[in-house]
Amino acid sequence: MSARGPLQRPKEIGSLQVFVLDVDRRPTLAFEALDLAEAQDICRDADLRTDLFALTSNGAPICAPNSALVPRLAAQEEIAAFRHAVGQAPASDMPTMTFLIKIDGVMVVSFGPE
Fold first, then answer.
1. Between residues 43 and 95, which one has the greater pLDDT?
2. Which of 18, 23, 47, 99 could form a disulfide with 74 if both were Cys (CB 3.0 to 4.6 A apart)?
3. Which pTM was predicted?
4. Separation of alpha carbons 28 and 73, rounded Å
5. pLDDT of res. 14
């Protein structure tokens, strides 16, 4: 993680973009960052990785120690899902991350025509 602490950066610094963390090529987590370098810093955060190792989806771990974690710019439907989730979350000054997959034991906010 960079010295400026990307998870604690004020939003006024610049234009944030939505990124997606692919875990083993599976779109898993959406979040905002200034650029790809900052997104990579966020994804290398030891606490985030520890959390990802502990979570399951349909009973299977979503991330293993040897999983490939690759951030990328979000597609339009992923941006829409992220914005929808942020709109449903309680107001906070902390950065918001949104899972794009079902996480066991976590309340789901649905989005889309269902």
1. 43
2. 18
3. 0.78
4. 13
5. 60
